[in-house]
Amino acid sequence: MTKTNVPSSPEHFQTAPWFILGGGAMGCLWAYDLAPNSIILVKPERYLQYTNDPSTALTATKLSYQKTSQNIPCIRECRLANIRSYSSPILKLIVTTKAQDTLSALTAIQHTLHPQAHILLLQNGMGSQQAVKEQFPMHTLWCGSTTQGAYTTDFLHVVHAGLGQTTIGPWHTSSDTHPHFSAIFQQQLITYGQQVTFINEIQPLLWQKLAINACINGLTVLFECKNGELLTSPNRLKWVEKLCQETEQFLDNKQIALTTPLFQHVCHVLKQTAENYSSTYMDATHQRPTELMYINGFILSEAKQLGLLLPSHTALMVQLAQKGIF
Ligand code: PAF
C-alpha cells in the first residue's frame, strides 16, 4: 500500500494542509486566508527561485496581501511545494488555474492525490469541470463561482480589489469518501476562507455565470474596451443583445432556466463593472491564451450537439480568431 492509499481519518483530514494549484490572484487570496495551513503548488522553475536546494519539495516564503482601499500590505508566511517532487498525500485541494490548464495541472499531481481527496474547482467557463470528473472519478469534486476581484502585481503579491462572494456546491461525490470530510471541508472554507456560501445546486449558478461571460468577455476584446463601453455604442449593444438572445435560446433547449432575462442581467453587470476590463481582455492584452474556448467555445460545441446554430457566437469567435485571439 502506498502512502496515498492509506485511508484517512477525520482527525487527519481536519489538520491536513490546504493545497492551492494555480498561483495567480485567486490562488494567492485563498493561500493568504488559509495560511498558515496552506501550500501553493508551483512549477520546478518557480520553486527554484525560492530555494537553493532543488531536492527539497517544500519551502517557506512570504505572501503579501493588500486591499485597494488600504495602502498597507499584510504579510503572511506561505509555503510553496514543488509540483514535481512533492509526494505527501494531498487531501484538500483548491484549483485556481485557467480552465484550459486544469487537466494538465491536476495530472501533474495525480501521483500525490489521496483517493479521498476533496477538490474544489474555481474557474471561469465550463467544460473543465466535466473533464476533471471524467479523469478523476474517485475524488470528491466541488465547483465554485466567485465575484471576488483581485490581481497580482508580482508572484505572491496580491491586491484584493473588490470584495465579493464565493458560492460553492458539490459537483461529484465519491463513494470512497468519509461522510465527515465534506462537513470539515465546508466548515474550514467558511471559517478561514473569503465570504463563502455553500449551496446544493451549483450548476444553475455556473450556467448563469457562463451565459453572462459569453455575452461580455469576447466583445470587450473585439472592441478593445472596458465593460461599460459595450453600453455606450448602439453597434456594440446590438452585439450584446444578439449574443443574449442566442444564449437564451440555447439554454431553453437545454431546459436551463435563468432567474432574470439575460439581456437585462448582462446590462446590469455592465453598469456595475463599467470601469473594469474583463478577465478575457486582460488575458488578451497580456498575450496570454484566453478562456474563450471554455466560454463561447463550450456553448457552441454543446449547441452543435443539439443541432442549434448560434450565428453571433460563431461570428464573434471567427472575428477574434482573425485577430489572433484564442
Ligand atoms: O470575466 C470577468 O471579467 C467578469 O466575470 C465579468 C462579469 C465579465 C466582469 O468583468
Explain what the structure shows.
This protein is an alpha/beta fold and 326 residues long. An eleven-stranded mixed beta sheet has the order 8-9-3-4-2-1-5-6-7-10-11, with helices on both faces. It has helices at residues 10-15, 25-34, 44-50, 102-108, 128-135, 179-192, 203-222, 234-253, 262-272, 279-285, 296-305, 311-322, and strands spanning 18-21, 38-42, 58-67, 74-82, 90-95, 113-122, 140-146, 149-154, 157-162, 166-172, 196-198. It has two domains: 10-199, NAD(P)-binding Rossmann-like Domain (Rossmann fold), CATH 3.40.50; 206-322, N-(1-d-carboxylethyl)-l-norvaline Dehydrogenase, domain 2. Helix 7 crosses helix 10 (279-285). The termini are far apart. The protein has twelve helices and eleven strands. Pantoate binds at residues 124, 212-213, 216-217, 227, 269, 273, 276, 278-279. Residues 124, 212-213, 216-217, 227, 269, 273, 276, 278-279 line the site of pantoate.
